[in-house]
Amino acid sequence: MIIIRLLFVCGLMRSMSYRLSYRANHRFPSSAARPPASASVRRQAGSHLRPIVVMLAFAGIVPTMSWAQSSDTGNTANATTNASTSTNTPAAQEAQLPTVAVNASSDDVQPPTEKTHSYTFHSTTAGSKIALSPKETPQSVSVLTRQQMDDFQLNSVNDALKHVTGVTVDQYETDRTDFMSRGFQITNFQFDGIGTPLIYQSQYGDIDMALYDRVEVLRGADGLNAATGNPSATVNFIRKRPTYDFQASGDISYGSWDTKRIDVDVSGPLNKAGTVAGRLVAVHEDGNSYIDRYKPSKDIVYGVVEANLTPTTLATLGFSYENNRSEGAQWGGLPLLDANGNQLSYGVGASMAPSWAYFNTQEERAFAELTQQLGQRWKWKTTAAFNDISSNAKIFYPNGSLNADGSGIESYTSWWKESNRQIVLDSNVSGKVDLFGRTHDLVFGASFSRSELSNPSGEGDTDGTALSLSELLAGTFPEPAFGAATDYTHYLDVRRSVYASSRWNLSDRVNLLLGINYTQAGSSGDASGTPYSQQSAGSSPYVGLTVDLTRQITAYASFTKIFNPQYQLNIDSQLLGPARGSSAEAGVKGAFFDNRLNTSLAVFHVRQTNVATDAGLNLETGNEAYTAGNATSEGVEAEVSGQLTHDWNVSAGATILRVVGDDGLSTQTFVPRKTLHLSTTYRVPYLDHKLTVGSSVRWQSATRFESEGVGTVKQGAYADLDFMVRYDVNRHFSITGNLNNALNKKHFASLEYSTGIYAGPLNGSVNLTWRY
């Protein structure tokens, strides 16, 4: 009967999504439309890092606050949460609401954040693959919890990561986004701790947050977990898991530009014995936009089944489907400079995309996990993930430079399809050993990934048509007749890794973390008619040290390396070697008020060498050529997250950054050098605590982007201010209102590539929530 139910639920999840007929593809019509796949290095004169007195004060002010009806505890991660872990058996989960003591420093337990009503977390495996509390982790880690996402209606990946310390969201078009951290592009998105690098290092379409309990962001290099990538950050999306007590929720929201959204989330046991549980999440959203002719919509289905096959064996099967559709999608954004280098300005909703242009993305993600307890202290876990990621589009690109009279732009149109199929396997053994009278943590494992991509593309029959600025903004360019594929790219990427991680308990106050990852990466294929093949390998060591200064405060330091295979060609049509990065960090972390409030202050130094940098066209081949560049990033970060009182949540962070090339000149100047974010909510003690109010502010310093030979785009410092209010009508029903960009600030969402779109103006939504 258990097997029948498992097959039935998995089949149901699959049947709720329709098969994809085509997979995604991608075409960059010119270097102005899109940069190379690797993070390029752009240099401009800039200022040096200044002293950070304010940030020191920011980190030091928190311990002086008082906590109502609480007392500080020791340096273990004993934390109280109202949510039980999905891996517990029903006997350990007689109810969701009773408190459960979690010792994240001694048990591999990562409790979900839903129902904790908190803006902080209690344990993570980020960086080391060993479950540790925040202050036991010798790297900067931020977590966006389910509560914060619900409070501020952070439904998209772009909205979510805007609220993470040290992360910059560069949305340069309607449907493509770059994410930056510590001056480098974020290339690693993981799901439950495993994944492959982003295609082209950008996010195509959206990732909806309804499927996830929390988002963990490890800043700096992640050589042990991710093996390859940039020394920027790793974003880990932690999926919701089944509960062994029945629960259900439904959300209906209506917002600006006729945006409508429906969320359904149902979870509970699937058999009388309570050894099998399942969860189903479904979302539909559609509406218009502040951008002319742009109409996004999406459908999401996620199902997961968890079965306790024996008292020591847990099996999990899951599947998700996300379909994002965009009518009137932009490609290349608005030109921000004219031919004379003068900066241009438009209406906040301006677009040059005609209504026939579209950009659709689909993601199917299936995963299976088997966890076997080996005695009392060891565990073996194997995970397999199968991803089918695709997109297809018809695009219009405004090619050229605007003259003073509004001329100078010609049409470029294209269709493309892209299919990326991935297999990711990971298996590891983790446990504890006793040596020299102390207990230590060990993890050994291996991983394998295979990613195959193909993307045919073709052009329209009206390319090169001259258009005036008024015609472009009206979006009246007719849909051309598209021909057969004239360009084709195909590649196969295979990576194999072995890794080991350990945490050595040297004394009651000192712990040493040691680890290493050895990865072999190979890629072969055909890029626009040019065959290539490359093999690379590298070791990524990890060293971390934590020292408990007091029961609440821990000092730490860490160093790790990472490498990133590259497939760009130099001027001699030879492949560049892998880019190599290193990340060093030191700081102090604190845990206060029974670990309900976490603080951190860090200084960091990041370096990346041999990065592919645009060197113009190879005149013999007509293809882009690249040279190797180096960049160094250093700065300071501070963060506070959690509960100041039982009714007061806060998540705040600040970053001061300096990024330079080997010549000492500033690079990546479209990344703000100073950022600050603060989100807070307060449950008003009157009205029986039924009223919650909150606000969020995000500030960044001035930015600029120099377009070589044309001019410089500049944007001054700005702040976005949001508000929320929620009223709990009763224990099952609540009403939430959200107001975004309350000051109606007009600013670009990105300056990258000297093209862009404006961020959304003043907007709001009302959300009705029912929970059982």
UniProtKB/TrEMBL annotation:
Keyword Iron included in the entry's annotation: yes
Location (main, coarse): membrane
TonB-dependent receptor-like beta-barrel domain mapped to chain residues: 358-741
Pfam families, sorted: Plug, TonB_dep_Rec_b-barrel
InterPro entries in UniProt: Beta-barrel_TonB, Beta-barrel_TonB_sf, Plug_dom, Plug_dom_sf, TonB-dep_rcpt-like, TonB_sidphr_rcpt
Residue spans of biased composition, Low complexity class: 70-92
All copies of domain TonB-dependent receptor plug, residue ranges: 134-231
Annotated Gene Ontology cellular component terms: cell outer membrane
Localisation: Cell outer membrane
SUPFAM superfamilies, per the entry: Porins (SSF56935)
GO biological processes: siderophore transport
Coiled coil stretches, renumbered: none
Membrane topology listed for this record: Multi-pass membrane protein
Region (Disordered): 69-92
Example GO molecular function: signaling receptor activity
Keyword Oxidoreductase: no
Family to which the UniProt record says this protein belongs: Belongs to the TonB-dependent receptor family.
NCBIfam families linked: TonB-siderophor (TIGR01783)
Name by which UniProt lists this protein: Outer-membrane receptor for ferric coprogen and ferric-rhodotorulic acid
Organism listed in the record: Paraburkholderia fungorum
